[in-house]
Each structure stands twice: as structure tokens, then as C-alpha cells.
Amino acid sequence: MTTPFIPSSKSHSNHPHHTTPLLLSMDNSVAPMVITDYGFQKPAISSQKNPSKGGWRAAIFIIFVEMAERFAYYGVAGNLITYLTNVLGQSTPTAAKNVNIWVGVSAMFPLLGGLIADSYLGRFQTIIYSSAIYLAGLLLMILSVSVKSLRHHRAVFFTALYILSIGEGGHKPCVQTFAADQFDEDTVEEKKVKSSFFNWWYVGIVVGSASAILVVIYVQDNVGWGIGFGILAAVVTGALLLFLIGIRSYRRQRPVGSPLTRVMQVLVAAARKWRVDETRYGRAAFFMDDDEDGGAVEVGRSGRSLAPTNQLRFLDKAAIIDDIDASTKKRNHWRLCSVTQVEEVKLLFSLFPIWLSCLTFATVIAQLSTFFTKQGSTLDRSIGPHFVIPPATLQVCTGITILTSVGLYDRLLVPVARKFTGHPTGITMLQRIGTGIFFSMLTMGVAALIETKRIGVASEYGLLDTPKATLPMKIWWLLPQYMMIGMCDVFAIVGMQELFYDQMPEEMRSIGAALYISTVGVGSLMSSAAISIVQAITSVTGKKWLGNNLNRAHLNYFYLVLAAGSAVNLIVYIWVAKRFEYKKTEFDDPKAQRNEAEVA
Questions:
Q1: How far apart are CA 103 and CA 523, in angstroms?
Q2: Is 443 exposed, middle or buried (0-12, 13-18, 19+ CB in 10 A)?
Q3: How many DSSP H helices and E strands does the chain contain?
Q4: Who contacts 298 (Cβ-Cβ below 8 Å, separation ≥6)?
Q5: Phi/psi class of residue 182: alpha, beta or left (left: φ > 0; alpha: ψ in -120 to 50)?
């Protein structure tokens, strides 16, 4: 029999979640229950978890899996434009668009992968299956570049590329989330470690990608593409085996059904009660979720209830008990939702403006593996009389910048900033992202100046019409723009990773990771669209900004357009961030909430 859910109309506290701490059960096998002022039972929140599982000893195995995946990804993406132009014979703008489209699609698939993981398979199984798909794509890619007599080898190559995208779709939203799940948010010590974890997690990503750029890209350019891709397949296989070795140490969360169903329930319930006037719980509100057995259980499925917020107040109607609700003995989930369920939907919707305001930043980042690489191919890349580095190798400088900066950020900037702001992480997640967007604007400005210098050298030596000639200008001139991209990543990318994990409902964190990744994907697609638009507009004047001959093109103008777009985007982002409310749980310290709101 379902516990009656119609609360008393009398309120004993101004706070809608005030509770009388009367425990009904002390049985260790059952969560203690608390009587609220509304007469309901709810489980007391417990932070006890199996101490033999999780923590750094589990997370380290997962970090190695991510390092291997990044090693494989950058072994393909970092030099893909070179393969498309030098081997398949595509023009530079066409190759750049194809790279951007592939990167974009690869970063959009995680939305589907995250939904499948949270709803059906769970994160652990999704990682296993996606790794197998990823490995299959690499093996097909090896076949396409190694067997010259293979018919339709171009079609086979692109098929292999998009099989990698499917594997990426399951892997990316789950691995980081699964690793972060190894740290218990209800334990003070582990909660502190988790914030630092995101910094060092990104260090692992950088080590994997930098290793691929240093080793694999050199092998591809100087030994063979088949051997280069073979190295990637071997590393992914080894990492998968290592991941399975740590299977007994992982904390796992079971899939809880489609989170989109809970979202739709709130939207439908709010729409059905659109005529109800009391949008801030003027009537008695329903604060509880029905469990599978029909009993009453307070809080969301994660074990922590969310405090009511003032944002998106029209959704609050989904939690109000009207006359129809009060006359029924069993709750209709499509008519009446808990406050926690409503707040979960608010969290999801409140992240969309942040997501949108990060897209221009992702468009800037997309230049790293396309036009930055083609710029380097025109410059003097020799080290000594006999050694020439591949143009894509300079991407490792971005990785070195990140490795250095993350350590300084974690050990120097955070403690110093903490003294001034009083915030545990020094600056808030939104401030960190905003700093990265500011750096992206500066990066494009610096890149435009360096490209202007490169074109000037080509003009000075009469090489404007010889695009394959090596200019008497060292590739190290490009170092500033590569290093500044690294600074963008340290602030914005890591900040987005943490924000889209921390602020999502716990049952939807794989989707949260997918949303963060999708910013990179949509940004890459926007970069491809920007190239097409700029080509179409400038071709009318007869002087294309983005042609196959970079010496005659005006890539510097394109960079200035991106810099101006970043400046406008920064203003929009600040406006959006000022209106963002961080997640608050029922038992959060009100003083701590006020401090965080003041520095957001």
C-alpha cells in the first residue's frame, strides 16, 4: 500500500525542507528514515560506501584507458589533414572542412553514448563495448592504408574514420564520469580530491595526445601510415586489458532508466498545471519520489535532495498538489513530480546557455589541427642538417604548456586565489571558463599577427606563387599561438569538464560529459561552416581568403574574424554566467552558498 502523500497544510518552518530529525530505523541494512514537517518519511543521507573500492587506486586504471584513447585519437586527428592533402590529394580548404566535420561528428556521438550508458548499459559496460568498436575502426584503417590494391580504399578509409566516431561516442562520456565516480562526494576528503582530480585527469589526456604527436606522427610521415596506425591499435588493446585488470576495484552505478523520461514528466506536469497560480509552493508541495515498491522515499535517486531555486519558476508547477492530485491515492508521475525531480530538470536547462556561449571558443580550438598545421608545412622545420620535424609535431608544445600550467594552477594559483576569494577552488568554474574564452580571443589576435609576418616573408622572397616552397622562416614562430591554445585548454576545457559533471543530476552525468564534449563537436562544425561562408563571400571579390595557396590567401583576416567573434562571445558569456545559479542540495551550508553566489 502506498504511503499517503497529501501533506498537512500547516507549515512549521519558513524553509520548505525543514525536518524533525526523528530516526525510525537503526537497522544497518535499511537506510534510517527521517520524519519531515509534512509528515513524510525520507532516508537519512549516508556517505558510507565500500572503502575497499574506488579512490585513486581505481581511478588510475581508468586514467590509463583515457590516455590510450587520446593517444589513438590524436594519432589520427593530429595528422589527418596531412593524409587528406598529401595522400588523397584534397585541397587545403576541403581537407580542413573534412577534418572539422569528422571531429564534429565524433564529438556529437557522445550524446547518444551517454544516453545509452545512463539508461541501459551502465558506464562500465559502455566503456568495454565502445573500446572494442574503436579497435575495430583502427584495424579497418590499417587495412585501408596498407593494401594499395584494395578497391575503393578511399571509401574504406572514411568508413573506418566514422567507426572510430561511434567508438568515441560510447567512450568519451563514460570514461571521465566513471573515473570521477570513484570519489565519494559525501566524504569531505574525497570531495576535495575530486576537484584536483579534474586537473590531473586532463594531464593524463595531454600526456597521451602529446606522446602520439611526438611518436606516431613522425612514424606516419617518415616510415609508413600503416605502421603508424598499427601502433595506435596495439596501445588501445593494451589499455583495454589493463582496464579489465582493475575490475574488482571499481565503484559502479547501475543504469536507472532513461533520464529523458524524468525530464519529460516534469515538462508535461508543468504544462498540465499551467493555470495554477502558486508557483513557489503556496500550496502544499510534493517533496517525495515513489520507490519501486510503492513506498514513499524523499530525495532523488542519488540519495541527496535538491533545494528549491528561483530560476525557471514555471517548472515549479509540476511539484504543486492541486485538487486532482489530492483526490487520488497513487501519484501520477506525469502529473505530479517531486521538488528534487523538478530541480534536476532545471539544472539541465540552466546549463544550455553556458553550452551555447562556449561554441565560439570551440571554433577557435578547431584551428589547432587544421590551419595551424598547414601554416607549419610552409615553414622551415629543420633541426640540424638532417632532421626535419613533421608540421603537426608542434602540437606537442600545446601539451607541454598544459602540463606545466596545470601544475602551477593547482599548486600556486588556487592557494593564492583562495586567500582572496575564500572559495575552496580559488576561482569558480564559471570564472575559469571565462578566463579561457578571454585567452581564445588573444590567441586568434596573435595568430593573425604571425600569419601576417609569414605572408610578408613569402612576398619578400618572391615565393607568393610557389605554395610548396619552404619559406626562410623557422616554424618556431608559431610557438606563441600553440602555447596560448594550451592556456585556453587549462582554463576553459578543464572548467567545462568540471562544470558539466558537477552541476548535472547524478543519474545524468554521462549525458553531462557528452554535452561538454559536444561543444567541441559543434565548434568544429561551425569552423567548417565558417570556412565555406568565408570562401563564398570572398570569392565574389575575386580574392579568396582561404585558398589552396596559403601564400596568396588571407588566413590572417580569417583569424581576425575569429578574434572579433571571441570578443563578442566573451561579453555574452559574462552576461549568461552572471545569471547562472549553482546546484544546492537540501543540507548545503547557507553561508557557503551565499559566498559562492557572490563570486560566481
A1: 9
A2: buried
A3: 21, 7
A4: 34, 36, 40, 41, 42, 43, 287, 288, 289, 305
A5: alpha
Q: For residue 409, which of 565, 587, 200, 593 has the smallest C-alpha distance?
A: 200
Instruction: Report how far apart the first and last C-alpha atoms of the chain are (Å, whole number).
Output: 46
The tens digit of pLDDT for each residue in 485-532 reads 999 988 998 889 889 888 887 777 777 777 888 888 888 889 888 888
Residue 365 corresponds to which cell in the numbers above? 580550438
Residue type, position 29, single letter: S
Q: Which cell numbers in the block locate residue 4?
A: 499517503
CA dist 30 to 125, 340, 445, 473, Å?
A: 28, 22, 60, 72
Supply φ then ψ for residue 114, to 5 degrees.
Answer: -65, -40
What is the pTM assigned to this prediction? 0.71
Render pLDDT for 223-242 as a digit per residue (tens, 0 to 9). 899 999 999 999 999 989 98
- Report the b/e string of 399-414 with b at 16+ CB within 10 A: bebbbebbeebbeeeb
Residues 6+ apart with CB under 8 A from 156: 140, 143, 144, 150
The three grid cell numbers given for residue 204, joined into one nine-digit string: 593524463
Report in angstroms the alpha-carbon separations of 291 from 186, 315, 506: 22, 22, 17
Do the Cβ atoms of 325 and 276 come closer than 8 Å?
no
Sign of the torsion angle spanned by Cα atoms 206, 212, 218, 220: negative
pLDDT tier at 322, thresholds 50, 70, 90: confident
